[in-house]
Design a protein that fits this description.
By secondary structure, this protein is of the alpha+beta class. It has one domain (3-258): Glutamine Phosphoribosylpyrophosphate, subunit 1, domain 1 (4-Layer Sandwich), CATH 3.60.20. The chain has 4 helices and 15 strands. A 7-stranded antiparallel sheet has the order 3-2-4-1-12-9-13, with helices on one face. A hairpin with a 6-residue loop joins strand 10 (201-203) and strand 11. The two termini are 26 Å apart.
């Protein structure tokens, strides 16, 4: 299975520290060696890095680790392939446009017998169940709301309903963002930590690296980091209950809804 990393902040922040630990899991401290990717929102633009190499060996990952790109929303992924060959076209996160904004999506899990009808507005390039799910989500959001983006609360409710349909086909942990917020679905396993004043030191699980956030932040800063498994060993991470959808905004959880899928249903 894959692993996810997300960050949502109230001010643009770099993810170098967290990514250093996450990068090691891509073939060094863990088995996720079938590619990796990361996407940063910068205003209305996105900066996306993808590489089918293991992140622990990737020169591109080294660049990202040392390059302090500041963003309010970041989504990263390291892959252990279940559907689709190892290759750039199957490397997460995936990006599409909806309502004049870029959307970014990454998935951890395995969806069985998931073959939704796609109307051609969004089509997968690769062979993964993940990209199919992303295309279907955006297609159904566009069908529901037309050409105008809804308010965030209505959007969250719609994503919740669509998540129920997809999750009935299997494990569907995901991160989704359009740059204004970050939605996180814990189908089986996700955790988060909110870093805010009073800040302290943090030490990585996967690398012998400690950072003192008091030297890097202001008292007003707030950062939520979401990961498949906690990245540090001296912070209090909150495990998201299995079957919950979370809305993060301005560096903290804004709302949570339960997702308990019933029997498999047709997604059309």
């Amino acid at each position: 299975m894959c692993q996810l990393l997300g960050m949502n902040c109230n001010v643009p922040t770099d993810i170098c520290f967290s990514f250093t630990g996450f990068q090691a899991r891509g073939g060094a401290t863990d088995v996720h060696s079938d590619g990796w990717g990361i996407a940063f929102f910068e205003g209305r633009g996105t900066r996306v890095f993808l590489d089918p190499q293991p992140s622990c060996l990737s020169p591109v990952a080294e660049l990202v680790r040392r390059y302090p790109i500041h963003s309010k929303n970041v989504i990263a992924h390291i892959r252990k392939a279940t559907q689709g060959a190892t290759g750039l076209e199957n490397t997460h996160p995936f990006m599409r446009e909806l309502w004049g904004r870029y959307w970014i999506f990454a998935h951890n899990g395995n969806l069985l017998e998931f073959a939704p009808e796609l109307d051609g507005g969004y089509l997968p390039v690769g062979q993964t169940d993940s990209e199919r799910a992303f295309c279907w989500l955006l297609q159904e959001l566009r069908r529901r709301f037309g050409g105008t983006a809804p308010a965030a609360a209505a959007l969250f409710a719609a994503v919740h309903e669509l998540t129920l349909a997809v999750a009935s086909h299997g494990e569907f942990n995901f991160l989704l963002s359009n740059g204004d917020w970050l939605f996180a679905h814990a189908s089986t396993k996700l955790s988060f930590v909110v870093r805010q004043a009073p800040f302290a030191q943090a030490h990585l699980n996967d690398q012998d690296l400690t950072v003192d956030f008091t030297e890097l932040t202001t008292p007003e800063d707030r950062v939520a980091v979401i990961a498949t498994q906690p990245l540090t060993d001296n912070e209090r991470w909150t495990e998201m209950p299995a079957g919950t959808l979370w809305w993060f905004a301005e560096g903290e959880p804004a709302r949570t809804l339960t997702t308990r899928p019933g029997p498999a249903r047709k997604t059309t």
